[in-house]
From TrEMBL, chain A:
Signal peptide start and end residues: none
Source organism (scientific name): Arabis nemorensis
One GO MF term: protein heterodimerization activity
Family: Belongs to the TRM112 family.
Protein name, UniProt field: Trm112p-like protein
Pfam families in alphabetical order: Trm112p
Gene3D superfamilies in alphabetical order: 2.20.25.10
Automatic annotation (TrEMBL), chain B:
Chief location of this protein within or outside the cell: nucleus
All copies of domain Methyltransferase small, residue ranges: 42-133
PANTHER family, alphabetized: METHYLTRANSFERASE N6AMT1
GO CC field: eRF1 methyltransferase complex; nucleus
Domain of life: Eukaryota
Coiled coil segments of this chain: none
Protein name per the record: Methyltransferase small domain-containing protein
Key words, A-Z: Methyltransferase, Nucleus, S-adenosyl-L-methionine, Transferase
Pfam family, one: MTS
Family indicated by similarity: Belongs to the eukaryotic/archaeal PrmC-related family.
InterPro entries tied to this protein: DNA_methylase_N6_adenine_CS (IPR002052), Euk-Arch_PrmC-MTase (IPR052190), PrmC-related (IPR004557), SAM-dependent_MTases_sf (IPR029063), Small_mtfrase_dom (IPR007848)
Length: 118, 247
């Protein structure tokens, strides 16, 4: 559920991942989708998120957008795996500002706020 | 031929989750009727707000699967049990979506702003006392407050925020929700609209609306909102007045 985490903002971004159980699901490789998403990704957050789920293959610094069209699929394959194939099945997403934990059970993050947090 | 929409026998259930009913079927029928356009639309991110049993999002995925490569699906529900049931329905059909338990799309709005190409919503539209809105469990699936609009009116600005430039929005309404007023509200935000499905059941008159950003509409509204075009606005209302007199 990495994509959700990357997008997930409550009152702070990025949410830190506390990985309990991570599962991998095979997803069809689609370069167009990845190119589309690349522009929207906060690179450091993705790298950090992937690392906390046990995947450290992504380059530390955001690659130049030209790598997307370079014909070299190595990078896209890594992005594909980190973004779409890693799923946080059990664990928590932690707000970097407040430390508030949002539990993830059976792959579903519960982002509901308590009444006093709204 | 494999079914293009979700199969009822594979839809998971729980007594705290709204089961697929006439409104869900009408929404899926609207999506089916628009299938060719949706495929041509080539969406990258699709989303359902208030996914309940998962019947609608699963149907949308099945409609587009194999036709649109590389499309990502998201589904939210404020009811944690509904989120779980949706996951089970998706799994039973062998399809994937990111299910998130959240209020409307809170926690997604900022990062997904302007990114979603298709949003489908079957909101809690039943007119109820306002205190019933926001109750937990199955009540969250139907309690719509005054005129059934309390939650709808909260959803509209969120949808406007999330939709991409080419984004489409499908919404289930009842006649008692004043759909024409909803269209007007959305028109002020620059959206054109049309009725996709209109259906009367024993209990309710359902209207499925589709909205999309209309560039001409936006221009027109900018024009009319500036004071210099007061005259053109006036003449327009005059002509509509005359039109009414004629009828």
């Amino acid at each position: 559920m990495l994509s959700c985490n990357i997008k997930g903002v409550s009152n702070g971004f990025p949410l830190r991942i506390e990985a309990g159980k991570v599962i991998e699901k095979e997803v069809d490789f689609n370069p167009d989708f990845l190119k589309h998403m690349f522009a929207k990704i906060e690179w450091k957050a993705l790298v950090e998120g992937a690392r906390s789920m046990g995947y450290a293959e992504l380059p530390e610094d955001s690659p130049d957008a030209t790598v997307l069209d370079s014909g070299d699929e190595t990078f896209l394959r890594k992005l594909h795996h980190a973004l779409l194939e890693l799923h946080l099945e059990e664990g928590a997403l932690v707000c970097p500002e407040t430390g508030r934990k949002f539990p993830v059970n059976k792959g579903i993050p519960n982002m509901l706020l308590h009444e006093d947090e709204v | 031929m494999p079914s293009r929409i979700a199969e009822i026998r594979l839809v998971s259930s729980d007594h705290e989750v709204y089961e697929p009913c006439d409104d869900s079927f009408a929404l899926v029928d609207a999506l089916l009727a628009d299938r060719t356009n949706l495929i041509e639309h080539n969406p990258k991110i699709c989303m359902e707000i208030g996914c309940g049993s998962g019947y609608v999002i699963t149907s949308l995925i099945l409609l587009l699967k194999n036709e649109v490569p590389g499309v990502h699906f998201l589904a939210t529900d404020t009811n944690p049990i509904a989120a779980r049931v949706t996951n089970e329905t998706l799994e039973a059909h062998g399809v994937e979506a990111d299910v998130i338990c959240t209020d409307i799309a809170s926690c997604l709005e900022k990062r997904l702003a302007g990114s979603v190409d298709v949003i489908v919503v079957n909101p809690p539209y039943v007119p109820t006392p306002d205190y019933e809105v926001g109750m937990e469990g199955i009540a969250s699936a139907w309690a719509g407050g005054e005129n059934g609009r309390t939650v709808i009116d909260k959803i509209l600005p969120v949808v406007d925020l999330l939709l991409s430039e080419k984004g489409w929005f499908y919404l289930v309404t009842l006649t008692s929700n004043s759909p024409s007023e909803i269209c007007l509200l959305m028109r002020k935000k620059g959206y054109a609209s049309r009725i996709m499905v209109q259906r009367s059941t024993d209990e309710e008159n359902l209207i499925i609306l589709k909205f999309w950003r209309d560039k001409d509409q936006e221009m027109l509204d900018k024009e009319t909102s500036s004071s210099s075009s007061f005259l053109s606005q006036f003449s327009r209302s005059l002509s509509s007045f005359i039109e009414k007199q004629w009828r």
